[in-house]
Design a protein that fits this description.
The structure holds 2 protein chains of 2 kinds. Chain A is an alpha+beta fold. Chain A folds into 3 domains: about 180 residues, Aldehyde oxidase/xanthine dehydrogenase, a/b hammerhead (Aldehyde Oxidoreductase, domain 3, Alpha-Beta Complex); about 325 residues, Aldehyde Oxidoreductase, domain 4 (2-Layer Sandwich), CATH 3.30.365.10; about 100 residues, Aldehyde oxidase/xanthine dehydrogenase, molybdopterin binding domain (Aldehyde Oxidoreductase, domain 4, 2-Layer Sandwich), CATH 3.30.365. Chain A is about 30% helix and about 25% strand. In chain A, strand 9 and strand 10 form a beta hairpin. Chain B is α+β, with helices and mostly antiparallel strands. Chain B contains 16 helices and 19 strands. In chain B, a hairpin with a 2-residue loop joins strand 15 and strand 16. Chain B starts with a strand and ends with a helix. The chains are: A alpha+beta, B alpha+beta. The interface between A and B is large, with 78 and 75 residues.
Chain lengths: ~725, ~475
């Protein structure tokens, strides 16, 4: 039995691991029963069109087809996390290829599929806009006609005086960077079941990231009080932001409510890739100035995010990207303009990193280029400008207390010197028989907020019940926190057990039912250990206190934790207090570039993180290592291709994910524990941070190996080779 | 429903008769790794599948005299397991090693790869360079077609609807010959070729006396680089010759743009790939990278002929040691039959195209991706699923399951059943795997959560490494 006082930091095994290694764990598709009606979505398959007519009679005549639901069947036909601008089923206009126009309900999967083919939709194609810059021109086709513009958000940040900042600069560099969509590709495609219970409640069992937000949106769609909707999560096969938006939950709820029979929907991988949102493509045009002493004097940038057809979380992602256009550096003069734009592309929304990886691909690359221009070690230039305690953010307010960017960077430099010989003149060619293989080293830093930003109220609520006789014997912790794979149920349980002085086995967690567990907010923004952890910690303290003062053999406490409030950014200057906590990371990578093919292999990664306090060290490592795989995919491999708004790579055979052989075997996660004042036992979030510095670190390493700069993500072999070819042509012209 | 009727002849004659009577209305299936993906996408649709895997004496790799012969059912893994192939048909073995993942290689037949006839199919290129020929059989008799006359275009061959490819005949590399296959893919495992190339050179000392260079994924069919071959004759493999040969080879290409790469990228890399192939031959390092004992994830020896139980539409199988009967599953994949008809939902679907490995189970001792196995192939076979990996009753976990728990290898857990079935099969095949073997064994299993580090740690520790 574990001694309670050693629980914080202990690599306790996950309680869900046994079910997961034996096949007993039940994921949403495992809940489907033969007596359930099966659903099949009729997708638009075209990026922009007016629906002239929809005829369901042939589908309804097909044996086994029970119903064909359309826009007219949806009580309130709009949903969305922030703006409810997305139809559940489109009635008049489709705005991207993955829009849904009908839902076929049938006795069997075969009948549902056959029925879906028989739904006849007549479209009038409308002009398509897929380039966000083009979408901002006055004569561009409108994605949402009623809005009169494709501009979803404009946010400026103005700090100091950039004109003066550039006037003071000895070196000024300009850059343009492009990132593309990234697909979450959680291994478990969307699935779920739903029914109406004897109390006339709609029950939806599925996978998601926030029970209570799913419930809110489903209740709004069905025009029911929230108590009449219950959302339950089965085992969740990964999320990464990709389950934040509703994808199938509303389809399940709608059809169960309409037909009063149990229903099931299981998406194929293709439907999943077509049907849910992606990471935002973001283009950054920027100008950076620095003095010869290494002081960065000015940053000017334009940040344009392709939001796709619907709002999703674009507004928030774009604000994050705009805020981080100057990276984790204190710069006196900043001017950034951020835009989120509607297009007829797949909607973009939350994905691990939430705008930070895109923005800092640009900013970190610029810092390294500035260092080269100043003939300075890129690590040294970072050291001179990096955020410190008390540094002012671009929003002109001091950073939240607990700024650990510098110690994280220092540790990374130290590890890189030791393990990768960073800073030593490297042998240009490792193997003389293979002169086309060149090695290089790159470093980069990163910052990402923990928790909600820009005045969006953050809270997590937990309820702790205690039971025993003479002694406290056991506890039941209720908290609606989604276990998407990150290990949050274990971390929260360790916090409860530690706070209550109970062995882990005596703490029961109730977490997966919106009716049984209070709202903890989303499993996103690296926030659950901090927010959910604080709620559990404080509820445990309160219950324990009650227990001590009571003769009853029971105690119960419910605590809502709210962090230090944030504020919206000022509409003209961006001034404000955007966040209450940040996570800081720094990485060093070694790569090998094949100059004949453009292939880049990552040989080694050092990833340094301040996690405040590791609640479960093994799980923290797991978050870092797993995030690195997504970061490697983002940097080098994952290439979602589209043409006229249609996704050309809707399979795992065409949208390539890193395999075990693509990952370096030399991965060194370094965990620093510099306690955060907001977090339980000092813990702060870690889940997203490894995605932030990785791509620019790789870009620098490729430059170190070959002299070329890549500014388009992913840095595919084709793009690397094109840059190498352009370089050799340029060199040829100069020689 | 991807097909309605599933026929499983038990003799070649019966198969040829079925083909004859259902001419053009049926598709042959063996490993199913291409056929099931095509059928799910509506490519070459059919109502009837004729399964060749119950026919005895079609699965062989024989070395006789100066030829290696592959039966219609010889798999990529069978080629890899053959010392003769690794030593005397190296380019073919290398191509087989680069196809898919172990769970695909243990199912996919070389004959099937030839017949799919995509210009990106990896085994065509080396077989063309080696000068292979195929024997086509029908009720009317047999004919032999050299591979360079076999292809008519993208996914088109000279085969008649009533024919099946019975045998591939591959001239062995002679003592004065050297060969190599190289491939450019977008990732290090499970990658379809952007381009590939195979070179077979005849040498007199350091001088090339004859050259056969085949290029894949650069034209509607695999092509020969005749100008490059011509140029190479009589020359030594110095730097300049290698580059010029590459340049000439690239000139033969007429590539297209697709999702794997632009035509310009293919042109730009082809010369370098060919030159690199020649450099490897010149330096005697052409076999580099192909292990002596490749990981197969198959502990059933290729010659263990399974008794062919006649199949009448009812699948009689054995799952995790218990007999099972599926009366109405012969139109399904094994994955769906396991999940829907056996109620064994531990086996997961992640892609339904053999890319993610989440559906890995054991079929007669081989790790396979059950999404690409017709359920009827479980007839008369033994299946092991994740539910059967622990000892009977599940009281005692498999050591690898225990190691996964201890090492924190499961995060979301969705890939884990497949990872375990691949990893545990590796431990059956090689009780003390090294890191490279563990990586190969798991190369067909995608994990999106862990970055693989803790999964590899678990496999290595279960294999006895500290």
């Amino acid at each position: 039995m574990t001694t309670p006082s050693t629980l914080i930091g202990a690599s306790e095994p996950r309680p869900d691991a046994l079910g997961k290694v034996t096949g007993a764990a039940r994921y949403p598709a495992d809940l489907v029963r033969p007596d359930m009606l099966r659903l099949k979505v009729v997708f638009a398959g075209r990026p922009h069109a007016r629906i002239r007519s929809l005829v369901a009679s042939a589908a309804l005549a097909h044996p086994g087809v029970v119903a064909v639901l359309t826009a007219a069947d949806v009580p309130y036909n709009a949903f969305g996390l922030i703006d409810a601008d997305q139809p559940v089923l489109c009635g008049d206009v489709v705005r991207f290829a993955g829009d849904k126009v009908a839902l076929v309900v049938a006795e069997t999967q075969e009948a549902a599929e056959a029925g879906a083919h028989l739904v006849q939709v007549e479209y009038e194609d409308l002009p398509v806009v897929t380039d966000p810059r083009a979408a901002l021109t006055p004569d561009a086709p409108l994605v949402h006609e009623r809005l009169g513009s494709n501009l979803l958000l404009y946010i400026p940040i103005r700090k100091g005086d950039v004109a003066r900042g550039f006037a003071e600069a000895d070196v000024i560099l300009e850059g343009e960077f492009e990132t593309s969509w990234q697909e979450h590709a959680f291994l478990q495609p969307e699935a779920g079941v739903a029914w109406v219970d004897e109390q006339e409640r709609v029950i939806v069992e599925t996978a998601g990231q926030w029970l209570h937000e799913d419930r809110r949106q489903l209740a709004a769609m069905l025009q029911l009080p929230e108590e009449r909707v219950v959302v339950r999560y089965a085992a969740i096969g990964g999320a990464f932001g990709g389950r934040e938006d509703l994808s199938i939950q509303h389809l399940l709820a709608l059809s169960a409510w309409k037909l009063r029979r149990p229903v099931a929907l299981v998406w194929s991988r293709e439907e999943s890739i077509i049907g849910h949102h992606k990471r935002h493509p973001i283009s950054v045009r920027c100008r950076w100035g620095a003095r010869n002493d290494g002081t960065i004097t000015a940053v000017e940038a334009e940040v344009i995010a392709d939001g796709g057809a619907y709002a999703s979380t674009s507004v928030e992602v774009t604000k994050v990207a705009t805020l981080f256009a100057s990276g984790c550096y204190e710069v006196t003069n900043i001017s950034v303009d951020g835009y989120a734009v509607y297009t007829n592309n797949v909607p973009a929304g939350a994905f691990r990193g939430f705008g930070a990886p895109q923005a800092q691909f640009a900013s970190e690359s610029m810092v390294t280029r500035l260092a080269h221009a100043l003939d300075m070690d890129p690590a040294e230039l970072r050291r001179r400008n990096i955020y410190r305690e008390g540094s002012l953010e671009p929003s002109q307010q001091p950073l939240p207390v607990g700024v650990s960017a510098l110690p994280v960077l220092e540790r990374c430099i130290e590890e890189a010197r030791e393990r990768l010989n960073y800073g030593q003149p490297s042998a240009p060619i490792a193997d003389p028989t293979k002169p086309h293989l060149r090695r290089g080293i790159g470093i980069a830093c990163g910052v990402k907020n923990v928790g909600y930003s820009f005045g969006y109220p953050d809270q997590a609520t937990a309820k702790v019940d205690l039971y025993g006789k003479a002694e406290l014997e056991r506890a039941v912790v209720r908290i609606g926190a989604a276990e998407v794979g990150q290990g949050t149920h274990l971390a929260l349980r360790q916090i409860a057990a530690e706070t209550l002085g109970l062995p882990l086995a005596k703490v029961e967690m109730i977490t997966d039912d919106s009716d049984e567990a209070p709202n903890a907010g989303s499993a996103s923004a690296s926030r659950m250990t901090l927010m959910g952890g604080q709620a559990v910690h404080r509820a445990s303290l309160a219950a324990r206190e009650q227990w001590s003062g009571s003769e009853e053999y029971a105690a119960s406490a419910t605590v809502q934790f709210r962090p230090t409030p944030t504020t919206p950014l000022d509409a003209e200057t961006g001034a404000g207090r955007p966040n209450y906590c940040y996570g800081y990371a720094a990485q060093a990578v070694e790569v090998e570039v094949n100059t004949l093919t453009g292939q880049v292999q990552v040989l080694s990664v050092i990833s340094v993180h301040d996690v405040g306090r590791a609640i479960n060290r093994q799980q923290v490592e797991g978050q870092i290592e797993g995030c690195l795989a997504q970061a490697l995919g983002f940097a080098l491999l994952e290439n979602l291709q589209t043409r006229d708004g249609r996704i050309l790579t809707p399979y795992l055979s065409t949208y390539l994910l890193p395999t075990v052989l693509d990952m370096p075997t030399a991965i060194t996660p370094v965990i620093l524990e510099l306690a955060d004042p907001e977090g339980p036992y000092g813990a702060r979030g870690v889940a997203e941070m490894a995605l932030v510095p990785f791509a620019p670190a790789v870009a620098m390493a490729i430059h170190d190996a070959t002299g070329i700069w890549l500014s388009q993500q992913p840095m595919t072999p084709e793009r690397v080779l094109a840059a190498l070819t352009a370089q050799s042509i340029t060199e040829g012209e100069h020689s | 429903m991807m097909w309605r009727t599933y026929l499983r002849p038990t003799s070649l004659t019966e198969a040829l008769d079925l083909l004859d009577t259902r001419s053009g209305q049926a598709r042959l299936i063996a490993g199913g790794t291409d056929a099931l993906v095509e059928l799910s996408r509506g490519v070459r649709p059919t109502e009837t599948l004729i399964d060749l895997t119950a026919i005895p004496n079609l699965r062989y790799v024989n070395a006789d005299g100066d030829h290696i012969t592959l039966g219609a059912l010889a798999t990529h893994n069978d080629v890899l397991a053959s010392a003769a192939c690794r030593e005397r048909a190296l380019p073919l073995a290398q191509a087989c090693w680069e196809v898919g993942a172990p769970q695909i290689r243990t199912r996919a037949t070389v004959a099937g790869n030839l017949i799919t006839a995509s210009p990106a199919n990896d085994t065509i290129t080396p077989l063309l360079a080696l000068g292979a020929a195929v024997t086509l059989a029908s009720r009317a008799g047999e004919r032999t077609v050299p591979l360079d006359q076999f292809y008519q275009g993208v996914r088109r061959t000279v085969m008649w609807p009533k024919e099946l490819l019975r045998e591939i005949r591959v001239p062995m590399l002679r003592a004065d010959q050297r060969g190599i296959f190289l491939k450019l893919g977008l990732r290090r495992a499970q990658a379809i070729s952007v381009i590939n190339a195979a070179c077979v050179l005849t040498l007199d000392g350091a001088t090339v006396t004859d050259a056969r260079i085949a290029l894949g994924s650069v034209a509607p069919t695999i092509i020969r680089a005749s100008a490059a071959e011509e140029y190479l004759r009589g020359r030594r493999l110095d730097d300049e010759t290698r580059s010029e040969t590459g340049r000439l080879a690239a000139g033969a290409a007429t590539p297209i743009d697709d999702v794997r790469g632009a035509a310009s990228y293919r042109r730009a890399t082809l010369g370098g790939l060919v030159a690199e192939a020649l450099r490897r031959i010149a330096t005697g390092t052409e076999a580099e990278g192909l292990p002596d004992a490749p990981v197969l994830l198959d502990t059933n020896p290729p010659d263990a002929a399974r008794p062919s139980a006649p199949f009448n539409g009812v699948i009689e199988t054995n799952i995790n040691g218990a007999p099972a009967t599926w009366a109405d599953s012969s139109h399904k994949t094994l994955l769906n039959a396991l999940r829907e008809d056996a109620g064994l939902t531990g086996t997961k679907e992640g892609c339904a195209e053999g890319e993610c490995g989440a559906c890995t189970v054991w079929l007669d001792g081989a790790a396979v991706m059950s999404c690409l196995v017709p359920a009827a192939q479980a007839h008369g076979a033994r299946l092991t699923t994740i539910e059967g990996l622990a000892s009977a009753g599940g009281d005692e976990l498999h050591p690898l399951q225990q190691a996964f728990i201890e090492h924190g290898a499961a995060q979301c857990g969705y890939c884990i059943p497949g990872m375990l079935m691949a990893g545990a099969k590796l431990l059956d095949e090689q009780p003390h795997p090294d890191l490279a073997e563990a990586q190969i064994a798991l190369s067909g299993n995608i994990c999106r959560c862990t970055g693989y580090r803790k999964i590899l740690d678990a496999v290595l520790s279960a294999g006895g490494q500290p």
